Amino acid sequence: MKIDKKIIKELTDYLNEFDLTEIEYTEKDTKIKVSKSKILSSNQISNSPGMKSQEKSTSDTTQKMISGIQITSPIIGTAYHAPEPGAKKFVELGKKIKKGDTVMIVEAMKTMNHVPSTSNGVVKEICVKDGQPVEFGQTIIILE
Q1: Which of 85, 69, 61 lies closest to 140, judged by CA?
Q2: Cβ(106)–Cβ(73) under 8 Å?
């Protein structure tokens, strides 16, 4: 199998142009996946809101150490704090929530997906802004 380097170059250019972390290309029985990880500078790390502590691994990737129960996005999409613009938010800092309560909506392909809490707790931190794009598995809420 011969790999077409032009395709990989084009995919890499798309990653950079659209600020993506991963892109996949499939044609017939050939599948090419190109991905990258963002490396934060120490200045960016110290200025990141909500970061309690950080740890730098030998592969130059940054991981965030978080205390509490993390609720993550089940899909890629756009996160919304309320069911519609101007409506009451699902959660606020300090609010007690129960397992199964909707904490946010993630819109994907014009479908509004309610994200339920996976645990009981008190909202310690809201990690995404209203209208912000989110990735699969990204932490959106932290509970105490």
Answers
A1: 69
A2: yes
Number of domains in the chain: 3
State whether 138 and 79 are in the same domain.
yes
59 and 119 together in one domain: no
* Rounded-to-integer distance, Cα 102 and Cα 81, Å: 10
Residue with tokens 């959660």: 91
Walk along the chain (144 residues) and give the pLDDT tens digit of each residue: 566 778 888 888 887 888 788 888 787 777 777 777 655 544 444 444 444 443 333 333 333 445 678 888 889 999 999 988 888 999 989 999 998 999 999 998 888 888 998 889 899 888 999 999 999 888 889 888
DSSP string computed for 11-40: HHHHHHHTT-SEEEEEETTEEEEEE-----
For residue 95, give the DSSP letter. -
On whether the CB atoms of residues 73 and 135 are closer than 8 A, the answer is yes
Say which residue the tokens 């934060």 belong to: 40
Residues 104 and 51 in one domain: no
> What is the rounded CA–CA span in Å between residue 56 and residue 137?
21
The helix (H) or strand (E) run that includes residue 26 is: strand 22-27
